[in-house]
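How a chain folds remains the central question behind the approach discussed here. The record that follows shows the chain in one-letter code together with its fold in C-alpha cell form:
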Amino acid sequence: MGTVHYDGQEATNETLADRRPTHVLQEVDLQTDVIEAIQQAVAELDKRLVGVLRDEDMPSEKQALDTPRPSLVPLAEQLHSHNDRLHLANYRLRSILDRLEL
C-alpha cells in the first residue's frame, strides 16, 4: 500500500482508517464547544440589548424542537443535537432582530 502525508507525517491508508473515528469525534467535540460559545454570545447580546428590545411574548423555543423523530445512531444523534442547538441560536437571534427598536 502507498503512503500519504498526514499532519506532516507519513501514514499508511490503514493507519488513517484507524484514526478516522477519533478525528470525527474530536471535530464533534470542537463543534460542541463552538455552539456553546455561540449560545453564550446570543444570551449576552439579549441581556445587553434589553433596554432597546420590545418586550413581546415569543413562542416557546422548545416547541419547535419537540417533534418526534426516529432513533439515530450515536454520531447522527450528536449532529442532530447540534442542529437543534444551532436552530435555537438562530431563533433567538431572529427574535432579537424582530424586537430591536433602533
